[in-house]
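Re-run with default settings, no changes from the original entry. Doing this only to confirm the output is reproducible before filing.
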Amino acid sequence: MVIEFEKERLEQLLSDFYKVTERTVSIWDADYNQLVFRPKEMAAFCQMIKSSPEGNRRCTLSDREICEECFRTKKPAMHHCHAGLIDVALPILYGETLLGFLMFGQIQPKDAGADPFGQVRRKCRDLKLDGALLKKTFGR
């Protein structure tokens, strides 16, 4: 089944969602291709992680894993990404047919303790990123 998404309307919807929640939000098709992302600029923290080839690979794998879980279960899924932040994905269904996914996230877990960045830093240590700069961009 070939589905054509109305990107302009989706972009406006996602812009409104972002304004209200201040959480990144994206729409993906059923083949795991990202169609629309808000805000237009990815968070500096995520940009920095993705600047590392291994960090980019882990982000891509993490996104795919959560979408695959939605595909298998046809239900919303939540997981901790490789950096320790929470992502949520919801399947977009037409009857039993999966059309794509709505994903939002980069939510700090409540159980991260007094130093939520410390957990993220430990998980990303092997990416060899500037720790001070990564901390500066964290949570923005």
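The chain has one domain: 7-137. The chain has five helices and five strands.
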